[in-house]
Design goal:
The protein is built from 8 helices and 7 strands. The protein folds into 2 domains: 106 residues, no CATH class; 109 residues. A hairpin with a 5-residue loop joins strand 3 and strand 4. Helix 1 packs across helix 3, helix 2 crosses helix 3 and helix 7 packs across helix 8. It is globular and about 55 Å long. The strands form 2 sheets. Strands 3-4-5-7-6 form a 5-stranded mixed beta sheet, covered by helices on one side.
């Protein structure tokens, strides 16, 4: 995806010609009627990009954010032929530069709805962008999603209290982060992400932000597929002393 004036062209050749560009640390392309929401997104992106750059000790990746009107969702850049479900933010490298695709209306699958819900979704996708600034090997689903989720949690902790949001999460959805799998509906997927959020918040409280940098760098250094056992080793070593014992004590793990 490139931009020239007020025109956006995706690699699929689809043009969102009426979109405007809001300059910023992460530029935001948006329909003119969503200029206020675009400014809100720019603030979240600037906060998240600065915090993650500091936490991970890396320069921010080059990105553009695309705030997509509901009626334009099918035209957003993506890797797949089919559009992603409406209202679900995502990160895509099918655009140039890579893009965070943010919906006008966040799907109601994102629960609970608190002041932290929207920024957490933005910072989660930003976490994917930071993680994929380098090539990474295949990992178990829980590990691959834990990294951007704990990154988002670390940013949220810096931005303000998370207690209200965390208190409204289901800590016992009937599975652990490692046992979750198979065919799951949107509600179960959200419960899985919320469990990862709880796990990340607990780890940050116990070990501090330093382990986030260590676990990102540990995955960047892997050159072979990471299986379940290796993922647990990478995480426990990144946590530090007593990391394995702490993981074993956590009901969500």
């Amino acid at each position: 995806m490139g931009h020239d004036g007020n025109t956006v062209t995706t690699e699929r050749g689809l043009r969102l010609s009426s979109y405007a560009l809001l300059e910023g640390e992460v530029p935001v392309l948006h329909p003119p009627r969503l200029s206020e929401r675009a400014r809100e997104m720019r603030e979240y992106l600037a906060l998240g990009s600065g915090a993650l750059s500091e936490i991970l000790a890396v320069a921010p990746p080059q990105l553009t954010a695309l705030l997509v009107a509901d009626e334009d969702w099918d035209y957003a850049p993506r890797e797949t032929m089919r559009p992603y479900p409406p209202g679900l933010p995502y990160f895509t490298r099918s655009a140039n530069p890579p893009a965070l695709v943010l919906p006008e209306t966040l799907s109601m699958v994102f629960q609970p709805r608190t002041a932290a819900t929207l920024p957490l979704t933005v910072w989660h996708e930003l976490g994917h962008a930071f993680l994929l600034r380098r090539e990474v090997v295949r990992t178990p689903a829980w590990f691959g999603e834990f990294l951007p989720q704990v990154a988002a949690t670390a940013v949220a902790r810096r931005a303000g209290p998370l207690e209200e949001h965390l208190a409204r999460l289901d800590a016992a959805p009937g599975f652990t982060v490692r046992s979750f799998g198979g065919r799951a509906g949107a509600g179960e997927q959200m419960a899985f992400q919320n469990l990862l959020l709880l796990h990340g918040a607990a780890a940050l409280s116990e070990f501090g932000e330093g382990f986030v940098r260590r676990v990102f760098r540990a995955l960047w250094e892997e050159d072979d597929i990471v299986d379940e056992e290796r993922a647990e080793v990478l995480l426990s070593v990144s946590l530090g002393p007593n990391g394995r014992e702490w993981l074993s004590s956590r009901p969500e793990f």
